[in-house]
Amino acid sequence: MVFAPISAMTFDASDPAATVAIGRLFAYLAMGVAATVLLYYGTIYVREVLAVEAGTEQWFLLIGIGAAIVYAAAGVSSLLLESEWIGRFVDGAILFFILFLALAIRAMYHEQPGADDRSRLLPAWADYVVVAGFIAAWWATFLVETSSSRLVVAVGWVVTSAWAVLYAVRAVRVHEGTTFAALTRHLLPAIVCVTAVVFVDLLATHLNGYGALADAAWLVGTTLVAAFLFDTAVAIRQQGGELERLYDWTTWREQSFDDRSVE
After folding, report:
1. Rounded to an integer, what distance in angstroms lies between the CA atom of residue 121 and that of residue 258?
2. Where are the beta strands (DSSP E) in the chain?
3. What's the rounded Cα separation, in Å, for the pair 10 and 22?
């Protein structure tokens, strides 16, 4: 999802390229702000809402959200500084955003109570092999043969997007009624939007005359991702509020079991 740099960020209503650039800038900023808010509430979710140990899942989730922040920062920098190598970080960041969210959802799917009854498609150590493989492949192509970095990212987009959607659906189905299911249900639309933008971008890369479609899909998709990330943060805050209301003295009732009356 790297676009040609715009030579000037000054707004000119008669210049469609400048208008698109301004739209990209605001979309990047919206996603960066939403991801930062989600990162804050994500730490609260792990620390105050979850009542189970979730060390591995926590780090996968927070790293994935952090990758979204890197994506937004790299995108803004690529627009303002017009640097091609920074633009390649945009592709890499969105790849690792999807990858680590998929790994977090997969880890929670398997490690929640009752997971022993479910067979694993891949062993637990495969998570680290996948992460190490993608990191090594991306940095190798970035530093040695930059022309191949696009291929690594494209393959990663397809594989990790399918992986993320698969485990998100399975996790919600298995853990229905839990806070984890609620969190995954709010994150799933963001993953789906990213996946849709990725596939439109890949198609537009290989088909001539669809640049405008790619721009439009990216602007709408990225804005929706930012909205869904912020919605996930709001959902986490609401879950924390529900726990707090359990101890809210203003809503407690004292009931006598002798006369079944409320005092």
Report:
1. 56
2. 255-256, 261-262
3. 8
Compute φ and ψ for 7, nearest 5 degrees: -70, -25
CB 192 within 8 A of CB 102: no
Mean pLDDT value of segment 9-15: 59
Q: In 3-state terms, what secondary structure has residue 260?
A: coil
**Surface-to-core class of residue 136, CB atoms within 10 Å of its CB (0-12 exposed, 13-18 middle, 19+ buried):** exposed
Domains present along the chain, CATH in parentheses? 16-238 (1.20.1070)
Which of helix, strand or coil describes residue 130? helix
Which two tokens mark 77?
């920098």
Indicate the SS3 state at residue 262.
strand
172-176, 190-194, 249-253 — which is least confidently predicted? 249-253
In percent, the amount of the chain with pLDDT more than 90 equals 11
Q: Which residue has the tokens 């690792």?
A: 96
pLDDT band at residue 8 using 50, 70 and 90 as cut-offs: very low
Pick the closest to residue 130 from 159, 171, 93 (CA basis): 159
Q: How far is residue 240's CA from residue 68's CA, in Å, rounded to a whole number?
A: 23
Instruction: Name the residue type at position 223.
Output: T
Range from 88-102, 134-148, 230-244 carrying the lowest mean pLDDT? 134-148
What confidence score (pLDDT) does residue 34 get? 93
